[in-house]
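> run fold Zinc finger MYM-type protein 1
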Amino acid sequence: MVSWESYKQMQKADGAKSIASQLSAAHVEEVRRNRKYIMKIADILRLITTQGIALRGHDESALSDNRGNFIQILHHIAKNVPSLKRRIEEGPKNAKYTHHTIQNSILHIFADLTLAAISNKVKEAKYFALIADESKDISKTEQLSVVVRYYLNDIHNCVAQAYDGANVMSGHCKGVQSLLKKEVPQAVYVHCFNHILNLVIVDVCKAIKTARNFFSFLQSLYVFLSGSVTHNMFLKAQEQLNIAKTELKSISDTRWTCQFASCSEIKKTFPVILITLFQCKNENHDRAVTARCLLNEINMSFIFHLHFFYEVLKETKVVSDLQNKEFDVANASNLIESCSDHFSEMRNSCEEFKRIWTESVTIAKNNNINIECPFGVRPRKLPPHLQQFITESPHSEEISASSSEEYRTRVFIPVLDTIISEIDRRFTKNNKVLQGINTLQPNNKLFLDLSQLKYLAEQYACDVDAVAVEVKVLPKLIKRYEDENQCKIQKLAQLLTLLDEYQLAFHELFKLAVIAATIPVSSASCERSFSCLRRLKTCPRNSMTNKGLSDLALLIVEKETVKQVNLAAVMDKFDSEHQNRRIRLH
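> ok
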């Protein structure tokens, strides 16, 4: 009886608790502190990763003056957070949770949650396209970058795939595009427009001998003037002529913009290049021989090719908009078609050639270069075994031009003809599906042309009869919309916005417009990730595993999404996945 009375008095006392409840409260507080500590570690890891810097140092021991970014930042924050400092200094030595395996586990959780977040963001999109490209890292290992444009879990909603022209990707039998098409027949293969345009320039260089020699000479000039001694001479010559400091650009076989940049910089610094070569020519050094050879190649032919290809490549530079991730196939096709039309006008314009020729002659005279200098080697005699035949073009005759007409007929016209024919051959004119996409471009002359649009509708299993009805009604809706809003619908994105409001009435056209906007123009999105790869996998960090590299690359590329990941979700996933825990997390 006494014990019962004592128990009731204890219950009435303020703050009095049972042993069980006290143990429970202590457990909750311990779990709260442990979870808070792990979340702080996760937050620091997220900061370091999204900044693209290394986590660990060469020596992370207590005696090291640089224990790596993660340990150093953790201890720096602990200076101003007493609870964290106390946990680091007084907590169990075997449960600090700063080991690299713990770091990798948490980073992998971040990567998983980031992928889940990306998936959830785009699940409302009905269709998606695959974009892929690959590049070698610092350890010469091929790394594949895959971009999903409007991703959805159901692979059978894939409407397109974009790769470069490598056989392993584009092959008709065993290529990636062929294998995917067996699973998803409607996934039309789109050869990266940027790679196609570069192939056009490459084909010009292969087909026209003088063009091939010209670009080879540009690279030789770049290599010579990039030497330690010649480069300093080149910079000093710029100062003497009061020219802003300019660096020459190397020629790249895979980037047409590099050819334009090289022509542009050489055109700007042409007098400086001549001064530098003349200075090197008079030296008692091996480079004097190279300088003389380069000077001998700088003649009227070189000057004309420089100005001509500058004008040609300047037009293709405009097409660099193809790398914009918001660009769609319809806009890209119009841009390419406009570029082709410009080259056709340029080819048929005598005034355009005269302008380039006049500029070339002026530059040659200003720099005391002989205008009559031929740009080929001297003509050779016809071989004896061919002398008995009548030939229109001698077997081994080289170009030896001494007049503007020779340059026009043997350089100007052949180069432009090759460019025009290659653009027509390589781009969308032979693809009925992509032609159908062009008819959804409001400023296209074939806008809503049913004869072209039906191929696109059949490819993606649309009701062609319904499309025919919608095509008749839509122009009236567009006109009414433009009159009411005092605006002009000129782009696919604007058309898509309008159709979104009338999905029930224009269900099939809305579906086709979404697909047209989804199909990618190029694989530039993948190539952007390669710059991240070069920053991520460097010489000191070339031993990381592919799993770790994949997680880090994802977290760097998708840093905006990573920053929104809830640390509590990271903590819960870590609690459920991590084994052999030495601290209580639940």
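The first helix runs from residue 2 to 12.
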